[in-house]
Predict the structure.
Amino acid sequence: MKFKYINKTTIAFLAAVFLSLTYTSKASASIVTLPTGTNPGDSYRLMFVTSLTTTASDWGLETSRTRMNSFVTSVANTQAQLVALNTTWNAVWSTPTISAKDNTGTNESNASHESVPIYLLDGSTIIANDNADLWDGSVDNFINVTETGSTLSAWVWTATDRGSDVFAGYAGMVEFGLTNNTSGYWVERNVRPRSESYHVYAISDVITVAQVSSPTTFVMMFTVLFGIFVRRRNTCSSN
């Protein structure tokens, strides 16, 4: 191959193409939506705590569940990577008739609720191995990663009792949990006036891995592109 015909401008262009492809794969590295070790066909859920806050002003009303679900969904939709998952997001929030575990589809007693591992948005930290593990009185790690990938130590509205995992609260005082706790306090530490604003936990629907992208793909693309260019240059030079 006659590489002498490839000038500096051409090499710079090819390098730019390669770097742009590589950058595209890493540009949103602040959050990871494909947990390490998962393979095509594997299923899992993702969980985060919202960076934004909201009140619990409608605590005790069935409409509060719809509002909280809409709130966490709107927060998730600020991140292109989460939108791309095309999944449903629900809040860890209870009402008098629907518990947080039913609202999130993680009730271990409900056979229709698929039981899969639950991860943070960092790609490696597991919150619970399955539905039963999520509601057994403790979680495996802090639920302290937001939709942007930042960590947060904060109070979180749940309206959920840590012992029975159902609706709880009294006289306008609502249960809140702690992001920096793995005991039952993650979901209920104490109560606060519903007019105050706190964060909310969000859990995705079940996500199934269709295919796994690999950085090797981009290297192969660059190699093919470079090879085609060289062959064309050599063909032109021989004519």
